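fyi for ur records
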Amino acid sequence: MNSIFTTLEKRDERNMNEMKERIAKIKEHIERAIKISGRNNSVSLMAVSKNHPYEAVLEALNCGITLFGENKVQELSDKFPHSHPNYHLHMIGHLQSNKVKKVLPFVDSIDSVDSIKLITLINKEAKSIDKEIEVLLEINTSKEEAKSGFLTIDEVYRLLDESASFTHVKVKGLMTIGPLSNDEYAIKTSFNTLREYQNDLIERYPQIDLNTLSMGMSQDYLHAIEMGSTIVRIGTAIFGSRGY
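which gave:
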């Protein structure tokens, strides 16, 4: 793994130490939330590197992070190399159909599938490059118009009813973005809705592994863990303010 860091620019040691401290504090909070919730499964920490340079990604990797998420196809393809044996990279932002071919070589998972049309195209393009790709189904649990995602469970049923035809796609679970609000009740309700969807789908489709719940970001990940999240997507709390 050491060779990957030869591309690192010399950066301020204090910044590096601060990142280590932030990550350690987040992991401590995650473990405490798991314990309080009485859960016996783990929670993966995804570092969202949007608007941060690849050098910051490598620093996070050096701090023990091995799971990364990116929101934009162009930034992802510009920032990350095609080959990344030391970490996993997920596309977590809305994915347009015309960008599927561009993003597939870079990522291990697409966590924002929101239509049968999109997953069908992902399967087609993945087959063309002989790659099996994991996906999460994005649910708009807060029903906010500005967000992508399935709005009803019936839409998800229709997709999973066709899952046997997706030869190069493996559905691993569900994803949601909490409401853009400080309303704790609304946030928990949104996350609990996703968990209820998961329970329903696991019962209906026992042949599909749907155990992944990706929900919770820097401002609400503790609530998400309480509601059953298995992946939290943390950006600012790891990397600091973004350089827009």
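The chain has one domain: 2-238. thats all i got for now
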